[in-house]
Amino acid sequence: MRLTIPEEEIMQPGHLACQGCGATLAMRYVLKGLGRKTILSIPACCCTVIDGPFPYSAYGVPIWHTAFETAASAAAGIKAGLEVLGDSETTVLAWAGDGGTFDIGIQALSGAAERGDEILYVCYDNEAYMNTGIQRSSATPLGAWTTTTPVGHPKDRPKKDMIAIMAAHRISYCATASVGYPEDLIKKVKKAKESKGTKFIHILAPCPTGWKARPDDTVKLARLAVETKVFPLYEVENGEVWRITKKSKGTPVIEYLKLQRRFKHLKEEDIKQMQNNVEEEYEKLLKKCENA
What we know:
Elements: H1 22-34, E1 38-42, H2 46-50, E2 63-65, H3 71-84, E3 91-97, H4 98-103, H5 106-115, E4 120-125, H6 162-167, E5 173-178, H7 182-194, E6 199-204, H8 208-211, H9 218-227, E7 233-237, E8 241-246, H10 254-257, H11 268-291
């Protein structure tokens, strides 16, 4: 049987993640795709804790821990230093959560993209500021409970379209991915590695703690998000060529929502409206892909 996922394990046991953490799966798969010639730039987020206390690390590659807003700019600086040393082979990976990407780090990310800095930026998206207490971010979906959008006052704005923002920068490659589809994820990581300039991958990484879900449902949720069209899998090249990489099955959105108690307050009419929103957004995506 031909293996579709690299066999070598770069990320090691002994990390400090919660049970069922989607971020650790994302890191494991991305490192498999990039290989050991990788340097990580990680701002304040769950993953700065998950790797373990200094001088130990479960990630298996060099790490630069940086300020919350500077994952991209620190990565650009590391890459510049490597080039001075004559190293053109090592991949510099900026790795940040949705809060450090969609909100706090978007300035540095936009700057790197505009300059075309030779880095790969990965956002592992668990849809809230999980490391500091499950507060809302601009990646939190409409209707979701967080500690700053409590029951009775859930988030009333849609999730920010980060891929559209990065595609507007005309970078060489950006894509969505899910820990529920590792082959698709790793293929995109390898494609990004071979692309020039700034590359961006947005990975859905369920958080059982913040989503109020069972730890053993992480992969199921990551797959359902794709199957229900909540989180489509697609890629964009040079801001112009849009391509769906995994067709969604059209599974009803309720199948995804009912596994997460952060949505348990939603009424029938709320779920119906959410289903309509998902269908409308997926149709917009299909048109972009058709017109590319």
